[in-house]
Every structure is written in structure tokens, then in C-alpha cells.
């Protein structure tokens, strides 16, 4: 079913078709179950190749999986195995060379320009190892920014929500008006997590979120991400950190761009029927 937000993003006659599914439309339709968690991220033979000095590098090589709301997924693998490239593909920060990627029921590989930006802003939250906060903005302003870009909220509503989110992630109120340069790594990562969830995304993508903080803060960051998954979001984390892997519901191991192990992975049955484009239909 196309949600209200999707309908706003993609008027029905322009709605991108799903390019494919791990299940047939019949199976997905027949087995619809209202209590089954919805699939939020679905990759089908997703690949990314780079050409480097005449050499073809298969950074992500025919990868397929589907994750549902509420899942905490760790992507593991040796250096150069394709973890970050896969995460960037999932986040739309890079385009796949081939394959399909459905996010929250929409084939994102077919989005372009503004549609893509709006989709990412509304459905995805990013957390990076290096935090990537805007240095000239305070913690509060950094969290307000995604809401401002999305639009539809008054300044005081944005302020109130940002302040609430910063409290939720445990940033002391006396730090809310500090710029990132005056915050510790752990405090900056809390701000980055608050910013990632500012627009209440369905999916959170994190690239080594504990890579730049001490072990104690790392555990706190993991707890926060785990809570976000328990609240119903899909949280996908690229990590070398065994304690992140330890709390994950699903562990996905990559080597040379291919999945070599999917631990605890159960292919979900799609909760919603596959959307097919209806040509010429008016809203
Ligand atoms: N822009 C690019 N151009 C050429 N090759 C690239 C590019 N980006 C990544 N690669 C190559 O793709 C492969 C996968 O890289 P990727 O950064 O995804 O690995 P990773 O598992 O995240 O590594 P690490 O754990 O060290 O961050 C590597 O061989 C890398 O050199």
C-alpha cells in the first residue's frame, strides 16, 4: 500500500514500479498479514563496480536481502570487502551499477533529482564515524536542520522537537547551545543520532558509529541504536566492532563484495502487495 507520504512524493501515475522482489507478487499478496513487520529495505542482485586503471573492481557483487522494521542489522567483513559501498548504495549516496533496491516499497534506483532528495530526507537517517555535524551550528541547530529542510514545521516546533531528541539521546541541556568543536566525540555522536532521527526515518544507516569514541561511549551509542530498532526502525550498521555485532538481530558477512554468511537471517514475507504502475490512471 502506498502511504500518505508516498502519495505525496509520488502521485500514483508517476509512482516508480518496484523493479523486483524476493517474492512473487502472488505470494506477497496471498500472505499479507497485518501483524507481520513490513519490509523496509530490499536489495536484489545489487552490484557496484568501479573501473580503476583498466581494472574492474566488484565492490558489491550481486547482493540480495530483505530487512524489516524493528531489525538491527550488522554488516561485517574485512577491510575492502565492500561494506561502506553497500551502505552508500542503500543510502542513495552512490548509484548501483545493476540490480534493484526497494526502500519502504519504492524502487529508489529509479528516483532522480528532487524526488530522490526528498525520499532520503524523509525515510533515511545517517550516522557516520566522523559525525559530520555542521561546525558553525549549535547542537540544537544541527538537529533542527533536517526538519527545516523537510519543511512543514514552525520554528518553535522544530526547536521543541530538537531539544526533546537531544534529551532522549542523553545530551545534557547545558550542551544544547554548544557548537560541535566544544563537544566530545561521544557528545557529537549523540547529536548526530538525534539529527538522524529528526524526521522520524524508517531506516537508519550507520557507518562505524562507534569508530571514533571510547569503549564506554561506544556501548552507549550501541544501546541508543538498538533502542531505535526496538521502536520499529530498521537500523543497519557497518562495523568492525564485535560488541555491535553481538547485539545485532542479523549479521551479514561480506567478502570481495559478496555475502558469505547471513547469521540469524530469515527471509521475510512482504507485508504489503507489490505496487504495479497503473498507466494512465488519474488521481
Ligand atoms: N570510488 C572508488 N573507486 C574505485 N574503487 C573503489 C571506490 N570506492 C571503493 N572502492 C573499492 O571497492 C572495494 C570496497 O571498498 P569499501 O570501502 O566498500 O570496503 P569496506 O569493506 O568498507 O572497507 P573498510 O572496512 O576498510 O572501510 C575496495 O576494493 C575499494 O578499494
Automatic annotation (TrEMBL):
Gene3D superfamilies: P-loop containing nucleotide triphosphate hydrolases (3.40.50.300). The keyword Chaperone does not apply. InterPro entries: AAA+_ATPase, ABC_transporter-like_ATP-bd, ABC_transporter-like_CS, ABC_transpr_LolD-like, MacB-like_ATP-bd, P-loop_NTPase. Pfam families: ABC_tran. One of its GO terms (molecular function) is ATP binding. Keywords: ATP-binding, Nucleotide-binding, Transport. Residues 41-281 form the ABC transporter domain. Transmembrane segments: none annotated. This is ABC transporter ATP-binding protein. It comes from Dictyobacter formicarum.
Amino acid at each position: 500500500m502506498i502511504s500518505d507520504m508516498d502519495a505525496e512524493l509520488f502521485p500514483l501515475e508517476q509512482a516508480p514500479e518496484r523493479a523486483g522482489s524476493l517474492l512473487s507478487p502472488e505470494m506477497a499478496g496471498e500472505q499479507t498479514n497485518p501483524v507481520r513487520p513490513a519490509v523496509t529495505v530490499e536489495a536484489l542482485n545489487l552490484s557496484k563496480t568501479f573501473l580503476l586503471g583498466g581494472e574492474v573492481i566488484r565492490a558489491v557483487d550481486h547482493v540480495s536481502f530483505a530487512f524489516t522494521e524493528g531489525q538491527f542489522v550488522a554488516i561485517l567483513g574485512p577491510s575492502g570487502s565492500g561494506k561502506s559501498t553497500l551502505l552508500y548504495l542503500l543510502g542513495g549516496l552512490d548509484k548501483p551499477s545493476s540490480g534493484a533496491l526497494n526502500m519502504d516499497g519504492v524502487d529508489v534506483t529509479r528516483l532522480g533529482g528532487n524526488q530522490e532528495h526528498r525520499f532520503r530526507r524523509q525515510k533515511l537517517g545517517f550516522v557516520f564515524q566522523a559525525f559530520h555535524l555542521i561546525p558553525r551550528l549549535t547542537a540544537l541547530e544541527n538537529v533542527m536542520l533536517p526538519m527545516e529542510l523537510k519543511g512543514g514545521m514552525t520554528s518553535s516546533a522544530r526547536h521543541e522537537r530538537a531539544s526533546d531528541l537531544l534529551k532522549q539521546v542523553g545530551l545534557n541541556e547545558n550542551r544544547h547551545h554548544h557548537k560541535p568543536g566544544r563537544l566530545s566525540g561521544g557528545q557529537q555522536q549523540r547529536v548526530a543520532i538525534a539529527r538522524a532521527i529528526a524526521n522520524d526515518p524508517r531506516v537508519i544507516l550507520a557507518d562505524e558509529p562507534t569508530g571514533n569514541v571510547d569503549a564506554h561511549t561506544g556501548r552507549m551509542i550501541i544501546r541508543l541504536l538498538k533502542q531505535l530498532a526496538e521502536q520499529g526502525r530498521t537500523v543497519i550498521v557497518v562495523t568492525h566492532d564485535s560488541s555491535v555485532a553481538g547485539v545485532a538481530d542479523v549479521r551479514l558477512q561480506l567478502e570481495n563484495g559478496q555475502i558469505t554468511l547471513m547469521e540469524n537471517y530469515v527471509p521475510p514475507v512482504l507485508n504489503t502487495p507489490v505496487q504495479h504502475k497503473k498507466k494512465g490512471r488519474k488521481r
